[in-house]
Design a protein that fits this description.
Layout: E1 12-16, H1 22-37, E2 41-43, H2 45-48, H3 52-61, H4 66-88, E3 91-95, H5 103-114, E4 119-122, H6 136-139, H7 153-164, H8 176-193, H9 201-212
Parallel strand pairs: 1-2, 1-3, 3-4
Helix pairs in contact: 3-4, 3-9, 4-8, 4-9, 8-9
Length: 227
Amino acid sequence: MSASQIDRSQYRVYCAGPLFNQSERDEMQKIADCLCDAGFSVFLPHRDGMEFRLVVEVLTERGFEPAQAALFLHAAIFSLDVYQLSTECDAMVWNLNGRTPDEGAVSEAALAWSLGKPLVAYTDDVRSLIAGRFNPLLVGLVDFVTHDCITDLPDKLTHACAESAGSLRGTRSLSPKMQQTIADGRCLWQAMQSADASGDNELIADCVAELFAPDGIEPNGRSEVSR
């Protein structure tokens, strides 16, 4: 398939990269906006997913121990992001900027590559670890090619989509553990997308606790077997 045959409106793009300060979040938003302006739709985790701080606050107010709430909320975020990348999104743009590449984005890129998703990497950061080069196990995922201009990303991704057409790996061939992770992420996403849950951290916390709180763990740190 040629790039001219790609309908960008049919592709949802997972945007992965560092999100640990306002500058990094602004850069990720800029990447997402550029893709949207070019006709793609996007999933931007810090905007379209859950805000950890707000949901964990609800869970602790309900009596869950902070460390326990954080643990199963992390499990929820993992499942949600794996579901988005494996099922809801058709391609990925990976921001490699940072003193070292963001660990979460590295995992997401490896997952996208293993699923045969179109994957494009962006970096304009001169810092690197190995004599001016990225670790080959990272850039090997994008055929050792990165791009240093955000405005080039839509065209580069379009070409990647054309080259990857027909090469996606079906989720039925995945391990049972990954299939369960995707199923849990799907349930959480559907709850988040319901009419009543939009922006409602109380309802999101309900779903997180139901799906991801370990068996026997209840608010106030109690367990069913200890009562």
